[in-house]
Amino acid sequence: MTHTAAPRPAPARATVPAPGVRPGREGWLTPAQTVERSGFSLDTLRYYERIGLLGSVGRSHTGHRRFSPHDLEWLGVLRCLRDTGMPIAEMRRFAELVRAGEGTFAERLAVLEQHDVQVEEQIAHLRHQQELIHRKIAFYRSVTGPSEAEPAPPGSSGPEPAPAAASPAGPPSAG
Q: How far are the Cα atoms of 58, 119, 143 from residue 132, in angstroms, in the given order?
């Protein structure tokens, strides 16, 4: 006698979301899907939930986390803030302001404007460092000869003078 398995019921989507968390048309995301789409590790998602960067994450009837499209969008904001160097404490402050509602728009704006100033300073510093790299590239190309596959970097104005050679007992040259 052959046994045919009865069709399994569709998995439960999720329990009622926490206040302010609305599932979108796409429905709920599993933790694995959220990891894949957000770029955060599962440990980071748990940590962000524990420290209050993520609001209450929805749960399935079995207690498994279910993330909404809104959660994924918020994780995109957190990724941006983190990738641009905002400290976790400041991210928590911003998250608290967001949860506090529309009355905090001016404070949120101030947090983001201050962060923007810091990002601009980081970019200026990196541009300065990149100029040094471009000079070094130009110097090494002048010594080795240009490769047809490697055009000169933008903004390079030609080879730099060779650095002073170190004495036999001294440190190696900076080149």
A: 49, 20, 17
DSSP 8-state class, residue 157 = -
Give dist(CA 16, CA 22) in Å, integer.
9
- b/e code 129-155 from CB counts within 10 Å (16+ = b): eeeeebbbbbbebeeeeeeeeeeeeee
Q: What angle do CA 21, 29, 23 make, to 5 degrees?
A: 30
Residues ≥6 apart with Cβ < 8 Å to 150: 141
Cα–Cα distance, 169 to 173 (Å, whole number) = 12
Q: Are the CB atoms for 138 and 159 separated by under 8 Å? A: yes
Taking every pair of Cα atoms in the chain, the longest distance, rounded to a whole number of angstroms, is 90
pLDDT tens, residue by residue, 36-79: 999 999 999 999 999 999 988 999 989 999 999 999 999 999 99
Of 89, 88, 84, 92, the closest CA to residue 115 belongs to 84
Cβ neighbours for 21, distance < 8 A, ≥ 6 positions apart: 55, 56, 57, 58, 68, 70, 71
pTM greater than the 0.90 cutoff: no
The two three-digit tokens of residue 151, written as one number: 């055009």
